[in-house]
Amino acid sequence: MTRINYPDIRRDESVVDEYHGTKIADPYRWLEDPDSDEVQKFVEAQNNITIPFLEECKPREAIKTRLTELWNYAKYGCPFRRGDRYFYFKNTGLQNQSVLYMQRSLEEDGEVFLDPNTLSEDGTVAISTYAFSKNGEVFAYGLSGSGSDWITIHFKNVLTGENYPETLQKVKFTSLSWTHDNVGVFYGRYSDQEGKTDGSETTSNENQKLYYHRLGTEQSEDVLVVDFPENPKWRIGAEVSDCGNYLIVSPQQDCRDNLVFFADLSEPLKSGLKTKLTLTPVVTKFEADYIYVTNTGHLMYFRTSRDAPNYRIATIDFSKPISETSWQTVVPEHSKDVLDWTACVNGDVLVTCYIQDVKNTLQIRKLEDGSLIKDFTLEVGTIMGYSGRKEDSELFFQFASFLTPAKILYVDLKSESLEPKVVREVTLKGFNPSDFETTQVFYDSKDGTKIPMFIVHRKDLVKNGNNPCLLYGYGGFNISVQPTFSVTRIVLMQHMVVYLLLQIFVEEEYGESWHNGGRLLNKQNGFDDFQAAAQYLIDNQYTSSKKLAIQGASNGGLLVGACVNQRPDLFGAAIAQVGCSDYGCSDEKEHFDNLLKISPIHNVKLPEDSNGQYPSVLLLTADHDDRVVPLHSYKFIAEIQTKVGKSSQQENPLLIRIETKAGHGAGKPTAKIAIDHYHWLENSNAPNVLQFESAQNDLTQNFLKSCPQLNEVKSMLLSVSNRCHVSCPTEDVTTGRFYFFMNSPDENCDSIYVKEGLKGKPRLHLSPKDIPETNGKAVFRMYSLSWHGETLAYAYGTLTSTMQKIRFRETKTGKDYSEVLTNVFYSDISWTHDNKGIIYSTYLNSKKNEVGHLAVVFHRLGTKQIDDLIFVEFLDSPYLTLQAQISDCGELLFVYANEKGINQHCNFLYGDLKGVAKNNYETTPYLFHLLEGNGLEIQFITRIHGATYFRTNCRAPKFRIVRTYLLKGTKLTKGFWETIISEHSTRLLDWAVCVNKHYLLVCYVEEAAHKLQLHKLQDGSLLHKYSLPLGTITEYSGGSQNSRFFFTFSSFLIPDCIRYIQVPKHSPKRFRNALHLMFKANAKKMKYFNRDLIKIVDSSDCCLKQRFCVSPTDGADIPIFLIHKKGLKLNKQSPCIMYGQGCFGVQIMPSFCVAKLAFVKCFNGLIAIVGTRGGGEYGEEWYRGGTCQNKQQTYNDFIAASEYLIKLGYTSPSKLIIEGQQFGGNLAAACLVQRPDLYGAVIIHNGLLDLLRYHLLQESQSYLSEFGDPNIFANFENLRKISPLHNVLNENTFLKIPAVMTIVDKENGLAHPSNSYKFIAELQFNLASKSTKKNPFLLWTHRHASSGQGEHSNNYPATQYQLIFPNTNPLFAAD
């Protein structure tokens, strides 16, 4: 084994603490600051050693494949009844978090109630605690992020599925307990906590307080009901009694023993519970555990270890004076078995669960006297969970063992038999429990104590001392480690690994006395037990020291660390997960002396034997673990690498792997890591990356210069593209002016122009050069006119930034207002109807490299941005797109919040703006939920006479138009929507606009082309269908206040032209006749706005056709647009450019492209545009058929279209070029590596090519809904198969790789440049000298452009097509 060169870790010898006269050095104190740059570099340096080492493990792939097969099985939790519904948790197999389902009966299928996997991009948000109200109508739940113990409490309406607006913060280590009037909930919070609460803080938490939260109010209104200021370390547990009249308060100081107080809730609840509660003490000394079970009136039942180390059930009467003699035993302590838990079910039944020799037993008893009713017969195993309350007549429990996946059993307590029935049982494919056996042995520890140990292995195991063995132990905090099922263990055992589960001192297997035998001053006993177990296994020929691996987590990490220090010769490998290796220093000298002897960090030493060394060590920790903070593992690995790893006699690796965005275990997603040889290319401004860019650009430029007709091609493209670009105008109805964007051929970016009436001449109103701080490099993003037309608000940015600014200009004088609004990100600008200001969205609290959080704010014209009024903010959603819109009547505000991520969770809200305007915008509107869900969309159309019209896909995947009456406080229900235009069976309703108050212009997509229709607003009836050629409406303008509707129309053969429709005014008296005449005269005519501004390209010798090829996988028809010159011969000689997209439900619609038309006209070429799955050509089902796990279907469709064109003679492989941008670049690259034999050249613009790391780079977070989260195991496996970067080297690409050119916009925020850099580096390094076809692999980087924006019109079109023209370039070899 090659020795590892460990990083040099700084030791600060000046840090010394003194305890009881003993000086203790702490040279790694600096590792306690998890946010410091030095610690971050330490983490990176350690992972850079560990990850490559683990990746080189030869059996890794086989183990991973087998784990995937076995792990992918459904896992269920016990059903539990709340109200009139059942709920249960389910994980389909490889989900990061289990999903909460709801069902009305046990027989029907459950529906998703809450899916935590949709609440974060990486699956690290988990449900940590929850509680239903007594009537089952409100669900309170706590969410934790990245494995932290800190939670945020939310409230969800069970009936409507809507969340209440309030959240509860600074919450940790708490239960939730509802009052029985369903009004509020008790919870504990650290209200005095300062600084971070994300799990990475290292300070201890103090002064937990118990609060009462009333549903529907802000957290600031919560009532402090219980606190213990004189005892800041206490954690406060609280539970409302089964009768609802008492609050049981149970303070706890350590991990065991608690106090008991109670408060009578009868009177406080009548008065609204507005003050602190009066507590009556029951137990005032930390000397035992007291767990509330139930009560009958004033008689309270507790499970307690008071005078019973193995626990008993005792009662105490709260109505009588409390004394030491008040406790009465109902179920006495068992002499040997430990009472693990108990519950009261069906009114008067006690369920008791014991631990008997480390396995569970289950009984039913009478509540009144504890007498036994039934003892269930269970195999050796563990009851993993149960459900059943006093008001329930059903008991559910979940049972598992080493060889049995969890099964759920049901007991009907009203039946006579009381026999458990299996209601759910799972099996694993490829796993036969009969191949294995479980044995329980008892061995002697160092002091002669009999220690139990389970041994699990294959039946054909031969005890020859040569078997790999994994020994696991915990040994702490009175926690029992019992037989449970583990896929990981099964896989290991199938490879002849012996698994041992050891029950050592400090656990709960034999009660309190057993626990005390291995804690505090007796801690060494636990380590002795563990080492004795190892010796037993070696002596009995199960294994040998070199093949014995030990493992422990949390407190078990301490166990492993201590044993490695004390007996390094006994073990071959050691794994310590989130270990607490520095156990702290007691204030008592006796404890300090003991801890100093056993603390792993303080006892690292090189073995005295010159041939001795530490076993292989792997520490596993997480940067957000706030229960056992990672500094323990950081310091321990630093110490052993420094003291042991640097020695020549240490050959075994000493490693640590540090998970980011993970904690102590809860909420941790299934994450995978792959070797990334080109990771350094992600730092796009590093000197070595800049050098890489320059070298690639030089190579590409020299190659392109060799093209004999380069200048001719470039000149031709520029001459054809020499035309103005004009946007749809905005009509100012008060002045008759029209505002629009326009740029001439010699301008880089748009300017804002104005026309006086339709026949006026355009004049420049505002140029990017007029914005002083941008030095003329600004790019306009949008503009918005105030309602009276006197003020223009305009948003602008730079070529290389997605952030925007907003300024204001007087339209009459051309003077700008002084204020500038910053940190604007893709925001709409919506004017209030009184013209006092705008509503927009912005990032608040933005800092360098941190964008802050999004908010919708009101800006009053003429004031500073700092004075803007916050209407709504989203503190917990960093990946959010946010838009705000004021209704055309000015009365309502609509907020559209869309969380980018795996399910695109959408939240649509509305509020009354009229009242806010009356208060002069000094108050904020209360926002009501209009619609919420995954993948839902809604578009406001108009509001007239109290009716509000929307376009939505709610219960209509192809969209419909609905009407509703939004009243304050109204909750939308299924019947609340009135359909005005129904969903079409085949057409997709793309958008709709209200024009002239009474009409709807509706645009459909049919066979990938737009169709425009006029409808009556009142009832949706069709009035007219407009005749449009095959093409696309790329933009439009107009509204309910306008009589003219403008739209830009484009087709493959028709350049952009702006048309408008004159819509007549409504005539109530003679509606039908007048309507017919006016439409005949006006509405059916479409006039041109910009015919005199554009140069029409003659395309009369070209034709446009639509063809369909059949997908070989499922027989679906794949649409293909073909553009070519008339009379094209199908002789396989035509060069062809094939383009596709297949992402985000975006339709590839017919649009004009100068370069593509030039290719057709000048080279007799063919353009093929393919509509694959994943696009939006045919609605939701078509889109979903090409996303996430179905992404390969997109590539299959594109490949099928390629084969179709070749088969019919349109082209041949050597003449077929495929091209794509961003997601289309991913499509082109994936097809390149899968079928390189089909193509002659591939052009990739800003492609998304590294699908294992795309989610970590820039705005690529938003693509999770399209490709899936690589942190989820199933997604990772799929992405690894289709990621172009990770599939360059395969049996296909070695044979005949086509020419490749990747074009990169350096400042592109949508697909990080490293995608292309890595891809081209992989091609050049691995295939340039190996491919049988000598084609070039080229990269061209535009260093000052973003997604193509801002590139001078004289450069960009020519650059991107120099590669593809045949007969001008040596890229094209003969067939």
What are the salient characteristics of this protein?
single chain; 1375 residues; alpha+beta; 8-stranded mixed β-sheet; 21 helices; 17% helix; 33% strand; globular; disordered C terminus
Give the count of helical stretches: 21
Physical arrangement of strands within the biggest beta sheet: 32-33-35-34-36-37-38-39
Can you count the beta strands?
A: 76
Q: What's the N-to-C terminus distance?
A: 50 Å
Structure report:
The chain has 1375 residues and is α+β, with helices and mostly antiparallel strands. The strands form 17 sheets. The protein has an eight-stranded mixed beta sheet with strand order 32-33-35-34-36-37-38-39, sandwiched between helices. An eight-stranded mixed beta sheet has the order 69-70-72-71-73-74-75-76, sandwiched between helices. Strands 3, 4, 5, 6 and 7 form a five-stranded antiparallel beta sheet that branches. The model is unreliable at 475-480, 503-515, 581-585, 662-674, 968-975, 1067-1085, 1091-1096 and 1346-1375 (pLDDT under 50). This is Prolyl endopeptidase. Residues 7-423, 674-1063 form the Peptidase S9A N-terminal domain. It is an enzyme of class 3 (hydrolase). It is found in: Cytoplasm.
